[in-house]
């Protein structure tokens, strides 16, 4: 059975570097590559039954849009690389969900990108990468 690598991808340059690194590793080792994208969605709100139904529809729309707009173009670009590539798009806390994906996929390694910027968003994503490095169920490579 070949190894499985999970690479986190959010459309950013940093995540693309992580995918490129993971792709090279997968090519070398004959591993399968799972491209993971996590959408955060707050579960903390009080909703009416109609609002719950609407929220469910919106969640499905967001998952479909992430698959089509973010992962679809990347999959098309990576076609023909000789690496078996799958996608996994979910809602949840980013670090916890990526760790769950790695466990469920039987991954031997996770690969994530680090932005290195000093903006507020970079600090948030940096915190995600730091958390993931601490809770990852398998070795986690952080690509600069």
Compact overview of the structure:
The chain is of the alpha/beta class. The protein has a single domain (4-143), classed as 3-Layer(aba) Sandwich (Rossmann fold), CATH 3.40.50.620.
What is the CATH third-level topology name? Rossmann fold
Oligomer: single chain
Largest sheet: 5 strands, parallel
Number of DSSP helices? Answer: 4
Helix content: 40-55%
List the uncertain runs.
none
Number of domains: 1
Mean pLDDT: 87
Strand order of the largest sheet: 3-2-1-4-5
Task: Kindly provide the radius of gyration, computed on alpha-carbon positions and rounded to a whole number of angstroms.
Answer: 16 Å
Distance between the termini: 30 Å
Proportion of β residues? Answer: 15-25%
Q: What report would you give on this structure?
A:
With about 140 residues, the protein is an alpha/beta fold. It has helices at about 15-30, 50-80, 95-105, 120-135, and strands at about 5-10, 30-40, 85-90, 110-115, 140-144. The chain is built from 4 helices and 5 strands.
